[in-house]
Amino acid sequence: MSAEGAGGGAGDVFERVAELLRLARTALSEATTVLFQPTAKGEKKMAAVDRALEELWQEAEDLVSAGLATGADQDGDIRTVITDMYVGEDVGRMGVLARQVADIAWARQTKPPLPGPVRDAVRGIGEDCLALIDGARDAVASSAAAPGTDARLADITDQHVRLCRVLLSESASLDVVDAVDVSVLSRCYVECAQRAASVALHMALFRETAPAS
Fold first, then answer.
1. Which of 133, 144, 157, 181 is least surrounded by Cβ atoms within 10 Å, i.e. has the fewest?
2. d(CA 175, CA 195)
3. In whole angstroms, how far apart are CA 77 and each of 72, 83, 212, 213?
4. Cα–Cα distance between 180 and 79 in angstroms, integer?
5. In this structure, are residues 36 and 125 in contact, taking their beta carbons and an 8 Å threshold?
6. What tens-digit pLDDT sequence spans the chain (213 residues)?
7. d(CA 87, CA 204)
8. Comparing C-alpha atoms, which of 118, 63, 51, 90 is closest to residue 193?
9. How far apart (Å, rounded) are the C-alpha atoms in residues 81 and 72?
10. Beta-carbon count within 10 A of 213 CB
11. How far apart are CA 135 and CA 151, in angstroms?
12. What is the 3-state secondary structure (H, E, C) of 46-106?
């Protein structure tokens, strides 16, 4: 999202951010498949995670670097600086979270599956997170699309609280390793959803505050 994108073609800015969300979503989705469908070509899925993350992190790093470089210039465009840094940091963090999910998913290939109710709870949070990212991406790509991220994020947070209550009450009868995996996975999904919602909100503000042509 360099000055070229923000200053020359506003459409390019939104297309680039939508593509970043797509990459983050791809990585998280492939990792989730490995987690819940361990026999479904796990190695190929992990390779897809790696490819998406490599591209995502490069783009995110470019954005943050561009924002910092432009910010050091007194004549730099404020909209470009803020947007580069906000979006770059959010999507970069989404990549880190997707990597964590992938690493846990891969490590669990040799472990027994999680108990049904806990497994279903984590799967539900993950699926809702992916749906929220889809909505955020659609909203970034088109001003006509309503993200609906607030309601979705509130629901994901509620699901996470319910799962935490189960874990802390020890009613799921998990061993320590499984309990830690469940806790980290659910937190990763929740924060990923938060970051995607943040990107959608910032880009809505970017669109709303565009100077009159």
1. 144
2. 30
3. 11, 10, 16, 16
4. 41
5. no
6. 443 333 344 568 899 899 999 999 999 999 999 999 876 678 888 999 999 999 998 888 877 676 555 545 566 678 888 888 889 899 999 999 999 999 999 999 888 889 989 999 999 999 999 999 999 999 999 877 666 788 999 999 999 999 999 999 988 789 999 999 999 999 999 999 999 999 999 999 999 888 876
7. 12
8. 90
9. 9
10. 4
11. 11
12. HHHHHHHHHHHHHHHHHHHHHHHHHHCCCCCCHHHHHHHHHHHHHHHHHHHHHHHHHHHHH
Number of Cα atoms under 13 Å in the Cβ half of residue 59: 24
Distance CA 94, CA 150 (A): 18
Q: Residue holding tokens 């490995």?
A: 34
Looking at the chain, list the stretches that DSSP marks H as alpha helix, in order from N- to C-terminal side. Answer: 3, 10-36, 42-71, 78-107, 116-141, 149-169, 176-208
